Structures are given as structure tokens and as C-alpha cells.
Amino acid sequence: MEKIFQRPASLKPVPFRYCPGCGHSLIHRLIAECIDNLGIREKVVGIAPVGCAVFAYDYFNFDMLEVAHGRPPAAATGYKRVMPDRIIFSYQGDGDLAAIGTAEIIHAANRGENISVFFVNNATYGMTGGQMAPTTLLGQKTTTTPFGRNNETAGYPLRVAELLSTIEGASYIVRTSVDSYKNIIGTKKAIEKSFRYQIEGKGFSLVEILSPCPVNWKLSPIDSLTWIQTEMVSVYPLGTFKDKIKEIE
Amino acid sequence: MKGNEAIAEAAVQAGCRFYAGYPITPQNEIPEYMSWRMPEVNGVFVQAESELAAINMVYGASAAGVRAMTSSSSPGISLKQETISYLAGAELPAVIVNIQRGGPGLGNISGSQADYFQAVKGGGHGDYKLLVYAPYNLQEMWNLTMLAFDKADEYRNPVMILGDGVIGQMVEPFYPKPYVRPELPVKDWVLDGCKNREPRVIKSLYMGEGELEMRNNILQKKYKVMKDKEVSFEGYYTEDSEIIIVAFGIAARIALSSVKRLRSEGFKVGLFRPITLFPFPEKELFMLARESRRFITIEMNAGQMVEDVRLSINGISEVLFYGRPGGTIITPAEVQEKILQLFNHQPYLA
Ligand SMILES: Cc1ncc(C[n+]2csc(CCOP(=O)(O)OP(=O)(O)O)c2C)c(N)n1
């Protein structure tokens, strides 16, 4: 009998310990599947951020580097510049990438570093207990916006994919979601494309992934998926914002 | 060649193949030199968007096993502290050059020694130590930079060259001795893809019960070995001296000219010059302590190393201090005057 579904070799044979319904485990799996598909497990180095996904190295079955809060794009730059034939990706949350690490992501994109960035937008700070993130929606209640995010004091949701797509150095910028089967497939395609671009030396790519955080959103896992569809997608539309290679073709 | 360029070229010859930095006076010659020199040797130069980014680029390059360096001056070194702590925690080798300027805050751009505490007492968060070298002329900037790369690899630890704006900008002849690579441990921790081996992780997070304490104990053991093996200093006329000046870096160079002058006039004065600031030459200083002897620490700051001198001397001798903070250069004449005050039994006025 042919085995048609199994644990990717790029995942360690251990159960995920993320919260029930959390998007991180699903996204980890998608990344692992892509790495398996491309046959690059032995050439990959992943960067674990500071955030819930700091534990990524407990699950990924390849070399991993843990980097200070927000600095993964800089560390990836240093790594890739000296190891151009290895494949490096940074995996970052929205606090890591869109708040404390804004300078690093913008300049890595602007230099057109040949790296892949997987950016998990869950509209909150998961690891520290659900505070406001730059991506938190207006009116959204978090532990530091108990009355809902008010733009007058806390600014607006930051659209990272749109922002980065204006940068000349960036090659491929896309926003996907893991709220539905269709979008999960789309996310996987985008991740694989990002890796493929890196393998082919096509430069900087970022996949922004809308991802559920049921515990901090105080919703059930199912309702969290609905919340992505009804609330998040209107602020963070899905789609490809930049594909330099396609533009050239 | 300026002192800053001596550091850059010594780094290249010692096999440094990654440099990232952000402009700040008085160390700009280092990134400028690296920007053309690195491509010549197939190395990498990146002008980073900030000192934070620069040191994290070094962190990434070091994880790949490449000899990597960053440089800055005081305000920029403050920004690097976060990742210096991460480098220490993750046991990644790196060389960090601080060409100190006056502080606090934006301060000024003249040479200073006011980052002593930051360099030797931790600087960033957590219990960690850097190996800290204090060159006092261009020859040492060359030699110690090469040594710094070897020691960083040997101990898997960040190493700091604590220079200052004066020697950074100074031009003087020196012998650029060729680099000879010592035997060093194999880098069996490098992240280069898990081909034919188990995956590796480089990290500094240890959440398991008792895990972090264990990690800390391992680090502390390493620092103890540094203390036992890496202390470096020079003594000048210390044996028969009634007064011993203790000074490092540029202050030591200034003090040495005063000492020579005073010696020629018959005054029994000497100089003790720590070359490693961590590990500090505690035992060696203690051996020189006598009830009949006085020590005076001279620094271009408001009094930092003097605390370590006092700890080393442990109350056996009197330890005085003379310093000028804020990027003011001490003159040999000033030092002479202070020493003469002591010989003439005038009340000591700092
Ligand atoms: C310099 C620094 N500041 C703050 C923190 C605390 N901290 C840890 S994770 C985190 C935010 C995590 O949020 P995000 O990046 O969105 O990732 P998530 O946990 O939601 O996946 C913060 C602020 C830290 N570890 N280091």
C-alpha cells in the first residue's frame, strides 16, 4: 500500500505544544512540507524569533538559530552573505517583525537580501499574554487595549506586506491566510515559491500569513478562523503585492 | 596607517571575512577600510542600518563559523549590548571594537576611557564576561586584534578591543607581524546544514527546571579558565617603586612618559599597565601591594578601573585616583605634577 500522508522529515517526531487552534503548528508543518518537497532539509537553517515560535527548534528537524527580538532579518543577512549556497529563513511574529524589528525587516528587504521571511500576523503578542501588536485591529480588545484599540492613542493596524511592496529591493511579497483549506494550500504555495526564489538567487521574499490565536483572542478555534475571514481580511487583504520576477517575465 | 586602519587590516589578515558596522566618529576609518578591503579577500562588508543590526549580522555570520567583527564608538556600543549578551549566552565568537569617545549621552568625539565598566562588568543583561583587551599603541592594536580572533574562537566568546579616539586616530610606525594561526578547537557547533549529522541549534533560551543555572555554571567555569590563563599586563620599574601608577590604554602611554621623566630625575615611581581588563591582573597587582607603597590609578574617566585596583590591593596599600572625564586628554605634565605632590607629601588633591 502506498503511504500518502506522513510526518515530514523536516519535523521532529514530537507533538506540538502550541495552544489548541494556534496557527504556528500548522505553519510549521507547511514550511516543513515545502522543505521536504524541495529536498533542501540538509541545506536549510531556520531562525527562531522571540515570540511563541521561539520553540520552533523543538519541532523543526534541521539546523536552527535563535535570534534576539526583532533582529532575525539582520542575522539572516549575516548568515546568507557568508553562506550563499545555504537556504535561510526567518520566522517572525508581528511584534518581532512589525514593532521592535521594523528597521531590520525594511533594510533587509531594501538590500534585496536573498532570504525568505515567514511573517505570522496574529494581531497580538501571543507569548507575553495577548498585548496589542502593531497589527491589532481598531477596536480589538487586548490586555493593553482593554477598551479596544483606539487610533488616537495607539495608531492604526500596520500593513506590512503593502509597506514592503513599495521597497525596490524586495522581490516577492504576498499575504496569505490559514483560515481555510483553500488558503492553507495557497500559503503552502507561497512558502514554496519563496524558497524557490531563494534557491534561484532571486532575492528577498516575505510571506505574511494571517494566523489564529484563539487563546488570546478569547475565541474558540473555529470562531477564530471565522474572525480572520470576517474581521482581519478586510484590513489585511490577501494577495500578491509584489512579484518582481513575474513583472520581468 | 592610523590606529583604526591597523585594527581593520590586522582583522583581515587574521582571517576576518565578515564585517558589519554603522558610521560613528572616531572609528569611521574601520568601516571605510573594510568597505574596499573585504571584497579584495572575498569577504563581506555590510553597512548596517544601525549598530543593533550590525551586531546581529555578526551573530548570523558567526553562527556560520566565519570570523566576524563589528566596530563602533561608545553610543553605538551601548546599542550593541543586547546582542553582545546574546552572543555570550549562545557562545558565539565575535570581535567587537570600541573606539571610545566622551560620554554620557552623545558626549563628544574625543578619546575617552569612560566605557571601562560597560566593557568589563557585563554591559548587557545577565551574568557574562567578555575578554577585554586594551591596546596602548598601534603595535598592540595590530597584535591584540589578531589575538582577539583566536581567543574568541578558543573560548567561543565575544572579545572586545577597548581602544579610544586618540589611539584610533594616531599614526606611528609599527611592525605588522604576519598572522600565524594557532591550533584551535574544531568548530563542531556551526550551522551549515544537517547533512550526515543531527540538526544543531544555537540558542540562549533555557526554560527547563535548573537548565539555565547549569548553563550559567558552564559559562562561569569558562570565565574562570580565562582568569587563570589569559591575564596580560606589563610592569615598568615596579619592583623598587614607592609609587606605582596603574593605567591602561592611552592613559598608560601618557603615564609612561611621565614615569620615565621622573625616573631620570631619581624618583622611584613605576607603572603597572593591565593589557587584559577582563580578566583583570588582580593577583599580579596584589603581589605588588606593600604598606610602604602607594598606588595611583590614572584614567580618562571619573574613576572606573580604580575600583578593581582597590579590590585587588585589598586595603594593603593606599590607592589614589586621578582622572579627567568627558573626553579630556591628560597631559604628561599633569601626571608628573600629581606624582610630585605625592613625593613631596603635599595633601593629595584629585
Ligand atoms: C527586547 C525584548 N523585549 C520584549 C520581550 C518580550 N517579548 C517576548 S515575545 C514578545 C512579543 C511576541 O509577539 P509576536 O512577535 O507577535 O509573536 P507571537 O508570540 O504572537 O507569535 C515580547 C514583547 C523580549 N523577549 N525581548
What does this entry look like structurally?
The complex is a heterodimer of chains A (249) and B (350). With 249 residues, chain A is an alpha/beta fold. Helices cover 40% and strands 17% of the residues of chain A. Chain A has helices spanning 23-38, 56-59, 72-82, 94-100, 102-110, 151-154, 160-165, 181-199, 214-217, 221-235, 244-248, and strands spanning 44-48, 63-66, 87-93, 116-121, 170-177, 204-210, 239-243. In chain A, strand 1 (44-48), helix 2 and strand 2 (63-66) form a beta-alpha-beta unit. In chain A, helix 1 crosses helix 8 (181-199) and helix 4 packs across helix 5. The longest helix of chain A has 19 residues, at 181-199. Chain B has 350 residues and is an alpha/beta fold. Chain B folds into 2 domains: 3-229, Rossmann fold; 233-343, 3-Layer(aba) Sandwich (Rossmann fold). Helix content of chain B is 41%, strand content 17%. Chain B has helices spanning 3-13, 29-40, 51-63, 74-90, 116-120, 138-155, 165-169, 211-229, 249-264, 282-288, 305-313, 332-343, and strands at 18-21, 44-47, 68-72, 94-100, 131-133, 158-164, 201-202, 233-236, 243-246, 269-274, 276-278, 294-299, 318-323. In chain B, helix 1 packs parallel to helix 2, helix 1 (3-13) packs parallel to helix 6 (138-155) and helix 3 packs parallel to helix 4. The mean pLDDT of chain B is 97. Chains A and B meet through strand 1, strand 2, helix 3 and helix 5 of A and helix 3, helix 4 and strand 7 of B. The structure holds thiamine diphosphate. Thiamine diphosphate binds at residues 50-53, 69, 93-96, 120, 122, 124-128, 133 of chain A.
Summarize the structure.
The complex is a heterodimer of chains A (249) and B (350). Chain A has helices at residues 23-38, 56-59, 72-82, 94-100, 102-110, 151-154, 160-165, 181-199, 214-217, 221-235, 244-248; strands spanning 44-48, 63-66, 87-93, 116-121, 170-177, 204-210, 239-243.
Question: What characteristics describe this protein?
Answer:
heterodimer, A: 249 residues, alpha/beta, Rossmann fold, 7-stranded mixed β-sheet, B: 350 residues, 2 domains, 5-stranded mixed β-sheet, 13 strands, binds thiamine diphosphate
